[in-house]
Amino acid sequence: MTTITTYRGQEDETINEMVCDGETFLYNGMEYEEGTYTFTDENENGCDYTITLNVTNYISPVADAGEDMILECEDNNQNNCETAFAMNGNDSTCFLEDEFDRWGWTNYFEEEGTYIMELWAGAAQCDTDKGELAGEVIVEYEDGFVTITYNTFQGYVLDEAHLYVGNEAYPFANDGSFTVAPGLYPYNSEVLNGESTHSFGPIAVSDIVDNGINIIAHAVVCNDLGNDDPDNPTSNGVILNGNSDITDVTYSWTGPNGFTSNEQNPEVFVEGVYTLTVTTLNGCSDSDTVEVIKEDCENNNNEDCETAFAMNGSDSRCFLEDEFDRWGWTNYFAEEGTYTMELWAGAAQCDINIGELVGEVIVEYEDGFVTITYNIFDGYELDEAQLYVGNEPYPYANNGNYTVAPGQYPYNVDYLEGESMYTYEPIDVSAFEDGIYVIAHAVTCTTSGCDDSDNDGVCDADDVCPGYDDTIDSDNDGIPDGCDTDSEQDCETAFALNGSDSSCFLDNGFDRWGWTNYFEEEGTYTMDLWAGAAQCDTDNGELVGEVIVEFEDGFATITYNVFDGYALDEAQIYVGGLPYPLAKKRRYTVAPGQYPYNIEYIEGGNTYTYGPIDVSDFNDGIYVIAHAVTCETTTSLSNKDQISFEAYPIPFDTEVNFRYNTTFDTDVTFEIYTLKGILLKKYLINDSKKNNETVIKFDMSDIDNQLFIVKMITNRGVVTRKIVSSSLKKY
Q1: Which of 250, 278, 348, 407 is at 20 to 30 A from 368, Cα to Cα?
Q2: Domains of the chain, with CATH numbers?
Q3: pTM above 0.70, yes or no
Q4: What whole-number distance in Å separates Cα of residue 105 and Cα of residue 94?
């Protein structure tokens, strides 16, 4: 007998899979691109069935994390902190109303209860429009006790807190007078380390028999930017620029210190490399990175401010000699008279060799009174001042011990807002028969506040010769050496332009024209060299040559070729991974004098090559800025045709004279330009006769101090001079 067994066949199978651009699907050890594939297989019983594999390709996005960014330092004080006082509305009295010389409020509470005061930071003159509402102070006044709680709002933290509670509007100082100096308040917490809440109390007030209590609640509040290191200055944030070539994507950022964000453009405050990942709805993704570079914040704390103390020579005693742990001097005056003390900033260990002499403090000690005046030298300003005058070498703290902490001095002015002089009201010292001691403390700040990208001590805004040292003038002609060129030649600044792969300096916030050029891949490129193209408008300039970039095997070689009729006078080159070079304090600069490759004396050649330059570290391409000074070589006069042209005085104040003479009849045009190629003034003289010395006077009072180019244009040639107005503005 034969037995026939029939097996049921297996149903055909369809497999649908997705791959992203450039990917394949791995199936049974084989890779398959987009398409439909059919296979025949047999099951365990030997029956055949069909497998259909559908591989679908989805477009992958391209992530763009943007250009590297600079994390700038804060311009305000260290950790971005402000003094703050609590205010209780109509039941508050501004210190200034009671003739104190600082702002803040004393607050009166007639009855027990719970009250909420506003905590205002930086409200100078008690004007809340000038301040920031940084938090609140809660007063719980019950059963003869009071508890005070500081709560800061989001974005602020507490650095320190000082509290007065009493039956008088103000606390008493050591000399028995009223004071508003927070260091003299009875309740002090000076190291709060970024807390958002802090409480004092309960404080017994049951012995205050008068009606109600008075409260002064002071604090130092700081912006909370996520920086937990008080020794590391905070920086402004930067907003990351995430983009994709596909719109329907999700964004994901990762970065230093565990940073993550799903925003397209998050704000960050920490330097480092950030990675952007963009993902489509189909799961295809791409990543890109951007580096956030932090400025050198070392000198940016507290607006370049330093603590300073006055010293009276041999009649001074350093705090350190009396075993205090900070520097400074107490000064003894045995007899009445007028004395001038030196004010030294940053003189750590009482060593004036490492400090700066920033001013003087005048002591007028006469008829039982003393008047103290701070005078600050040019280049510095007063931010605050604290003063002690007494018959002991040092003031007393609340615990009865000597102190040198300026916040404990009886005379305090915290907001001088850049004054160069301050005088305290006469202080009665008639009770001190054996002379007086004076400690004069201040916080002084430098007043430069300006960029100086060429490090010549002249602010960029006042530079006569941008990119060069304005103070070097070896031929004493009033024109810095960096801008001295052959006066018989017509010379212009020039920059290379690489078409659409170039970006004008002006578009990136700089105040001069020129271009940075991007080269993503290796190769040989030819850029146009444009002279005098003010505002990056080539219609304003002259095409004077070309610049060839040979970018190969991790090296770049730059070659200048200028056309007939022109000559190279100097060249400056930048090559790097960022669009612009970094000057001091890690700020971008476009000043040619700051470019790393600087050739100042080419002396009239028409070609010049620099390199090869190692660029192997720049994986994402390179940026090139090619600057030159080019001069026309076609304006020379014949031997029989001569021009005499003199400008005086140099430097001039509000007027400048042009004296000229020619050996031929001609029309004469004078044109005055800025170094950036902007025409300021023009004057035409028709039919000027030969051998006739003529003087023309120009009124320049309406133009800011700077260096100018003057062209004298005749029928037979052009003569160029450079003139400079007034004196250099040193900061």
Answers
A1: 407
A2: 13-58 (no CATH), 63-69+235-294 (2.60.40.10), 78-223 (no CATH), 304-446 (no CATH), 491-632 (no CATH), 643-724 (2.60.40.1930)
A3: no
A4: 4
